[in-house]
Design a protein that fits this description.
The chain is α/β, with parallel strands linked by helices. The chain contains 17 helices and 19 strands. It is globular and about 70 Å long. Bound molecules: flavin-adenine dinucleotide.
Length: about 475
């Protein structure tokens, strides 16, 4: 049996690894010159960085086994500090009740509590939007302060048009009553660190996991072809996927095709796709990311791994300081690399402006936020644009997505997985799990429904950190 995998990101690589371990012939075709996809790492000005912050966490044993098996000890524990920057103040994230109280003026606090109580007494029935979901759980005022501006920067659409699915997947519920009780009792009884405080991280960047995985696949006899974009998947008259066509015109045959290329591109490229399916594909869209890296001449900047920048007066929404991850990233360098994230649609001006201009905006914004001492110069800059970074969960997106899922299910031997591969807002762990389970479905004849992964998962931050580090 020969299996072709499109894309060498976490989903494609984990799938290829699991298959190659069982002696199946696998060939990966990757469009870029790298492995790791959006989770790759790279050298920059003598240091090592990721594409924005990449924290790895999971409570799923299978995923953590993959992580430890591949890295074989080359990972470390990172103490996590992430905060929200809003109106010149820092708020711990995930939100802590006492910290919120300490940082806000009494009038705002009274308003927060009042709104919260009102909301609990009279919740929105069937909250289908992000705005309704968050307001129900936190009250209107907390929603406005901590969720509205950031989410609208990220998604580029009003919160009243973002589907509640995103909130349910990603936002840890804050129990105000629980927080008050633990504030009164103190933290004395809690000796465990949780995944909130600490996470495992490959010593030379998150991409190390995928570089090492690629080596293992090759050792197991698998092939990885870089710089080989796939144009379309070939499907025969009996509706069975049997190969791929590359952008350079070449073709390759296979018994199975696993795709992690953008789901909508995959669908549109198939022969005989019905018009209603094409129409459904046109309703789904992605949000792009622009990363601006700056090398700062100094080492004592802010202490967070990353900061969520809620302030509406700047365009970027998150800023990472790689100096605060682990020393193996920066070695003996005496500078810090920070990375500002901007989000855009293709038609937005900011997506097409020149790198110099973007760098200038980034420099002005860090000055405005006063996060970096003015005595420190910016020595270097680099801009990276990532198209189709976030599948947009606009309200009602499930309907066209279901049409695409049903259509793909009608084609035998074609399995889409991954973040944009299956239009799921995956983290690395979800994509890895999809890859491993897709392999099981083929080799062990299992029938796990891959569409279900990540739809109902609870936000797992409360997991005990020993789950990851001691397995
Ligand atoms: C700024 C940022 C921050 C993030 N932070 C975190 C975090 O903290 N924690 C976390 O777990 N995750 C994080 N993620 C998400 C994580 O990067 C992704 O979930 C993960 O990389 C998805 O893996 P994937 O294999 O599904 O897709 P991808 O990583 O996108 O890989 C897909 C691969 O397919 C290739 N490809 C696409 N089209 C074709 C084609 N036509 N032919 C051949 N190859 C093709 C691409 O080049 C790519 O290599 C973050 C992502 C970003 C961008």
């Amino acid at each position: 049996m020969k299996i072709i995998i499109i894309g060498a990101g976490p989903a494609g690589l984990s799938c290829a690894y699991a298959l190659s371990k069982k002696g199946v012939e696998v060939e990966i075709y990757e469009a870029s010159e790298f492995v790791g996809g959006m989770s790759r790492s790279f050298d920059l000005w003598g240091q090592r960085v990721d594409l924005g912050p990449h924290r790895f966490f999971s409570k799923e044993k299978r995923i953590n086994q993959f992580f430890t098996e591949i890295l074989d000890g080359e990972y470390t524990a990172i103490n996590r500090l992430t905060r929200i920057y809003y109106k010149n103040r820092f708020f711990q994230y995930p939100l802590k009740f006492t910290n919120v109280l300490f940082n806000l003026n009494p009038f705002t606090i009274i308003r927060i509590l009042w709104d919260y109580i009102l909301q609990r007494l009279n919740p929105i029935k069937n909250p289908v939007t992000f705005e309704a979901w968050v307001t129900n759980r936190f009250g209107k005022k907390l929603y406005e302060i901590f969720f509205k501006s950031y989410s609208e920067k990220l998604w580029g659409i009003p919160c009243s048009k973002i589907d509640a699915d995103w909130a349910a997947q990603r936002i840890k519920t804050l129990s105000l009553i629980g927080a008050v009780i633990s504030a009164i009792k103190g933290n004395a009884g809690n000796k465990h660190k949780t995944l909130v405080d600490e996470f495992s991280y490959p010593k030379y960047g998150t991409g190390l996991l995928y570089e090492k995985c690629a080596e293992r696949i090759k050792k197991n006899g698998g092939a990885i072809h870089l710089n080989k974009p796939v144009k379309r998947v070939l499907v025969n008259e009996s509706n069975i996927a049997n190969g791929i066509e590359l952008s350079d015109g070449g073709q390759a045959q296979a018994d199975f095709v696993i795709s992690t290329m953008p789901f909508t591109t995959l669908i549109k490229g198939l022969d005989r796709t019905p018009q209603n399916v094409k129409d459904a594909a046109s309703q789904l869209y992605f949000r792009n990311t622009i990363l601006v890296y700056l090398e700062i001449d100094g080492i004592d900047l802010f202490e967070d791994n990353w900061i969520y920048v809620h302030s509406p007066d700047v365009k970027h929404g998150r800023i990472t300081n790689f100096r605060n991850w682990c020393p193996t990233l920066y070695g003996d360098k005496k500078t810090s690399i920070i990375c500002l994230e901007f989000w855009a649609f293709e038609q937005d001006d900011i997506w097409s402006i020149a790198d110099d201009e973007l760098t200038q905006i980034a420099k002005e914004e860090i000055k405005k936020l006063d996060l970096i001492p003015t005595s420190m110069d910016v020595l270097n800059s680099k801009v990276i644009k990532i198209p189709r970074c976030y599948p947009v969960y606009e309200t009602g997106y499930q309907e066209p997505l279901k049409i695409l899922e049903n259509y793909i299910d009608s084609i035998d031997k074609l399995v889409p997985i991954g973040r944009y591969g299956s239009f799921k807002y995956n983290n690395q762990d979800h994509s890895i799990l999809m890859g491993l389970l897709a392999a099981d479905n083929i080799t062990d004849g299992q029938n796990v429904n891959l569409w279900e992964i990540n739809t109902d998962t609870e936000y797992q931050e409360e997991g005990d950190v020993k789950d990851i580090l001691n397995q």
